[in-house]
Amino acid sequence: MESSMSMSAAASVVVRTCVPAAVMLPLSPSFTRPALRTTGRGFRCRCSSATKDSAVVYSRLLDDALFRSAEVIQWESGKSMNAIATAQGIQIRRRCRPRYPSEGTGAERAVPRNILEQIIWDKEVEVAQRKARTPLCEVKASAALAPPPRDFVGALRAACRRNAVPALVAEVKKASPSKGLLRDHFDPVEIARTYEKNGAACLSILTDEKHFQGSFENLEAVRSSGINCPLLCKEFVIDAWQIYYARSKGADAVLLIAAVLPDIDITYFLRVCKSLGMAALVEVHDERELDRVLKIDGVELIGINNRSLGTFEVDTANTNMLLEKRGDIINEKRIQVVSESGLFTPDDVAYVQKAGVFAVLVGESLLTQEDPGRAIAGLFGKELLP
Ligand SMILES: O=C(O)c1ccccc1NCC(=O)[C@H](O)[C@H](O)COP(=O)(O)O
C or N: which end of the chain has fewer Cβ atoms within 10 Å? Predict the structure, then answer.
């Protein structure tokens, strides 16, 4: 529950919640809606002790209405998580769910259809194990003690203005499913430091162990090394627990992948990010995912991934195509766009800049050079001001 309550000397009560005051719930006639005052982080309600119970109940109702995940909906509706996702065109299925008769015997679900599905199935097991080891209340307590979040989007905006080219989110990734091991000598802090020195605005730290040889220890080590660039936790988020965990390790932003997450989970996870002061990079691959994401409130940053999930092929024309089709709506909503994957040359960067992006996310082309930081000037065709 995200709400809290405190008594003042005058026997009045203040209820705080992360939920916007604008949300009005249908209430039974016997329930007195408390007077609400909007604050930056939700609403405040000052009421007498006689009505304090209704204020507290109301805040809980708001939380329950908005802090809901697809997991909750599946219990309420009787539909499986996969049915909810499929209705939105999501092809990546979940594995660790109760079986439903409509999904057959289960035998045909034993083989993942592509690498992203394999990653998600592995992630379900990993997250369940991590949650069993460290319950949410403990992770929330560590997140509250973590160094404060830094402004991820602000850092990108400032760097884009400073250098008159898209800001760089430089990736710290040892290996990938498509390319295998990217470099033998891999010291995440050393790589992060040279990225920062050479003008990266933000860093993306892979934390998935099984498929990318990353770790949360790498994220924590970079955060505690004194590096100032805001950090994106590059993880396959399927549960809010992971967002609190990322925050507890010092992340300033997380990745939310539309190919994996139903709309209600994106909405819910965005609210969790906001309540923690973190940014969210919402990643899309195609028009259908982009259209879904554009209908979700609270999206500030969209990543267009140029890598096909099925074939691993990268094509920067994907960024151009999606911005040609939906650039107007994106601009209207003042959403900023990051082009991700497959950027190797100054021409590639110029191409996506012309398409309208304000940042690029780059891993392989930097990490395969001896000094990934010095490779930045090669990628942009000029040195970047840090
Ligand atoms: O990189 C992969 O092989 C991969 C496979 C399946 C899912 C995600 C994958 N990569 C994550 C990324 O989005 C990239 O690491 C990131 O955009 C940087 O791309 P690149 O510059 O091409 O390394």
Answer: N
Residue to mutate (ligand 1; options 204, 302, 307; most atoms within 8 A of CB): 307
> Within this chain, do residues 181 and 308 fall inside the same structural domain, yes or no?
yes
Whether the CB of 364 sits within 6 Å of ligand 1: yes
The Å distance, Cα 212 to ligand 1 centre, comes to 9
Q: Is residue 95 part of a domain?
A: no
Q: Rounded to an integer, what distance in angstroms lies between the CA atom of residue 343 and that of residue 252?
A: 24
Provide the domain count of the chain.
2
Known catalytic membership, residue 234: yes
Do 59 and 152 belong together in one domain?
Answer: no
Look at ligand 1, atom 17, and give the residue with the nearest C-alpha.
341
pLDDT in tens, the chain (386 residues): 333 434 333 334 444 444 444 444 444 444 455 555 444 444 445 555 555 566 566 556 555 555 566 666 666 666 677 777 787 788 777 775 555 556 665 555 568 888 899 999 999 999 999 999 999 989 999 999 999 999 999 999 999 999 999 999 999 999 999 999 999 999 999 999 999 999 999 999 999 999 999 999 999 999 999 999 999 999 999 999 999 999 999 999 999 999 999 998 999 999 999 999 999 999 999 999 999 999 999 999 999 999 988 788 999 999 999 999 999 999 999 999 999 999 999 999 999 999 999 999 999 999 999 999 999 999 999 999 99
Please report whether residue 107 resides in a domain. no
Looking at 40, 66, 92, which one is the last position of a domain?
Answer: 66
Q: 34 lies in which domain range?
A: 4-66
Q: Which of 43, 66, 89 is the last residue of a domain?
A: 66
Tell me whether 0.90 is exceeded by the ipTM.
yes
